[in-house]
Amino acid sequence: MELEYIMRCLNKRSALNFLKSFLFVPLLFCSASLLAEDWPGNSLFHLDSTWINQDSKELKLSDLSGKPFLLSMVFLSCDYSCPVTVQDLKQISSKLAKKKKKDIPVVLITIDPQNDTPAAMQKYIKSRGLDKESWTILSSSQDNIREVAAALGFSYRKDDAMGFAHSMLMWVIDKKGVPQFTREGRKQSIDEVVKSALSLRE
Amino acid sequence: MFSLGLLLAVFSVPPPEMVLVEEGSYRPLYSERKKEPIEAEIVDSFWMDKVAVTQKDYLKFVKKHPRWRRSKIKRLFADSSYLKDWASDLELPANQDPDSPVRFVSWFAARAYCQDQNKRLPTTAEWERAAAAFSSEKDLKSRILEWYSRPNPNNWPKVGRGAPNDFGVYDLHGLIWEWVEDFNSNLVTGESRADASLDQGLFCGAGALSSTDKNDYAAFMRYGFRNSLKAAYTTANLGFRCVKSRE
Is the pTM above the cut of 0.90? Predict the structure, then answer.
């Protein structure tokens, strides 16, 4: 039974990762992450796109599985609404940290892959005083960004004057990749977001 | 010299069942910039499918890719009416012509189909650029409006009937609505006003938004329709065709 379970986990990995799994800690890894079959049909983890974070590390959205997280879509050179979103996320994150002593991760997906390189992300994290442990900024191809935006109902387009015109949305995503709470603009309070995130974290 | 000729030949021969839409301009219907008149965008030339993707074409695709079959598809990628007129996973609708356009397909599905063919969905600018090329038809706008007001037929016609447009593309008006890649690039809807980053310059909000041609009611309808879509939506009159960049 247990062997079958491990094999199911291992099957999901490429040949290289298969080897790695043997070298490192396959059991721990498998039990910590959820199997694809367990994700609900509307889980974002069904998106197979590959992303790159501020440490130039490649990952899939499904690598975020296992615990709830906060998500928003921004571009880093934006000086209109994104700083507000990020400021609010910072406040939410610190409120969560106080309640549980351990953060719920914050993930920002950029809509400006051309400019938001890992170096730009690092700089942003530093200049905004974001906690590197809990904040992740992700970038990918235009196609993959358009796809995740479509899945989330986020609209955007390039605009010569402002960089991008875009929706102002924030989501609380559960551990299986399903958006459980959406904050539109600032219609919902920060405390409502905090409450939703806490309720998803057993 | 020979290789240059070969190169030119390669670039000018259209891929099968596609035609060239030449470079040209497209005037977006709306602009947040308070500039009058709205500046036209240049649309690079591209290859476009002559006709919309048919039921038969789509069946081949789902045969090849089980994850896009009706019983297998994840809800993230299509709502519950996905391919709902089909008899089963691999059976076309009994009462529809296999050469009629496939409908009840989501944006994700349309996109995956085009990717499988090494193509992509057209952008709004590309689609509108192609769809405006009817120089011989003076009364295009009223014909389109007449079509918009007609209910969906019970038996959908085959693709490619009637006359093509100036580029040789069929059915851009009068058959189905078609998915575009950037359907989610508009920020002008009642629902999204609260979440849009541009408070000023949005539709009803400020009234400062300028539109290109206030008489092109058909274009407003397409704009409104695209705005109302979500990527997983599927409906009875929405299909797609693919395009390809010229490299």
Answer: no
